[in-house]
Amino acid sequence: MRKIVQSATGGPEVLTLVEAPDPAPGEGEILVAVAAAGINPVDAAFRSGMFPMLPALPFTVGWDIAGTVVSAGPGAGRFAPGTRVFGMPRFPREAGGYASMIAAPEAELAATPEAWSDAEAAAIPLAGLTAWQGLVAAGGIAAGQEVLITAAAGGVGHLAVQIAAALGARVVGSASAGKHAAVKGWGAAETLDYAAEAPGAGGARFDLIFDAFGGETSETLLPALKPGGTLVSLRDPSDAARKTAEAEGKTLRRIGVRPNGPQLEELAKLGAEGRLRPQVAKEFPLAEAGAAQAFLAAEKPVGKVVLIP
């Protein structure tokens, strides 16, 4: 197999392509031939040493994968060899996703719908699970609600817009003006230009806000949230936001994404129905993993960046 390894933390240049023996699937695991691996901002955070949960060196970053089942270990067998699967195994522990082969817990994967290519399927897991866990599990989204999605053209945001719309909400997407057409194309009924419009200018109109930022950003979003509404963020809200929310009868929830096979299956159902389609911004060969991470950080493209082993 081929995989990306780093022996030190640092910039994209520490990512090196090496040859290695194929992994052997353990108890409850399957061996997957990786056809595509998604890139997320968290990959660069691990690479740089930003997170204290850093695996021991040397290690291989990456979690989003899509490919074909090769074999099953003891206690596994739900997916027959040849089945296309996708998932985000082991996160935030090391999974070794930037590779041509991976052994992964079968329970943390799902079958890939025919509607998605492998590159599209690899763009789904971390971002899609983040959106699902924020909107559904933490946010309790319901049909007929008015929902605001921030960073609506990003990796998580473009999937959150589609999921919220598919579940019957009226979606408002916040993004830069040049990305509004794309956001509406994913199902948003309305768009906001975050650089020019304060979300709260229209009053407390939203039942649910999905905030990709958190921190002080939560304070600026609270005026747009109805009393009794919920704001879900991917980072801790500020203390000031917490105090304001408590005083105004609003709920703040912070989520951290975790692997979840059944939730991946829900996303796959939406994909099979044509109601969830990931946007792949650019594909890079596995050997150019460093350049792919640098592109994602610098360009902030619409959708996701994917590696092809």
Automatic annotation (TrEMBL):
Gene3D superfamilies: Medium-chain alcohol dehydrogenases, catalytic domain (3.90.180.10), NAD(P)-binding Rossmann-like Domain (3.40.50.720)
Domain Enoyl reductase (ER) residues, every copy: 10-307
Annotated CDD domains: MDR_like_2
Domain of life, per lineage: Bacteria
GO MF term (any one): oxidoreductase activity
InterPro entries in the record: ADH-like_N, Chloroplast_QOR, ER, GroES-like_sf, NAD(P)-bd_dom_sf
Pfam families xrefs: ADH_N, ADH_zinc_N_2
Stated name of the protein: NADPH:quinone reductase
The species this protein was found in: Albimonas pacifica
